[in-house]
Amino acid sequence: MEGMFSYWRLYTDSNGDSRFEEVEVPLGDSGPIGHLSERYQVKDVQFRVNDGDYDWDFHNAPARQFIILLDGEIEITTSLGEKRKFGGGDILLVEDTEGKGHRTKNVKPQARRSVFIRLAGDN
Known about the structure:
The chain has strands at 4-12, 18-26, 28-29, 35-36, 42-50, 55-59, 65-69, 73-78, 83-87, 91-94, 102-106, 112-119. By secondary structure, it is mainly beta. It has one domain (4-28, 42-119): Jelly Rolls, CATH 2.60.120.10. A hairpin with a 4-residue loop joins β8 (73-78) and β9 (83-87).
């Protein structure tokens, strides 16, 4: 079993541009229950369904939050024009609450479900 877990982070750099970064989280051996990371303090959890024609022009994340994609596929474009696709099972930490933001659109014309987990300390 592996001792690492990874997710994608979307953040704002010192110039106000949004960027991607892959983050690796170390996991500790917890015996028969598996391997666990350290705990994250969270504020709340929210469920979401988007229509198939979802296409939101450049915007900032409303808070620092993890987004777990359950199904469907999205394409996120940074302010620098970098594009990445994410699908069911992918996890993102969106932290670009200021700056030039990012664009998000559905890749396929189908409804998409996701879970938002807002981190503690954010409004």
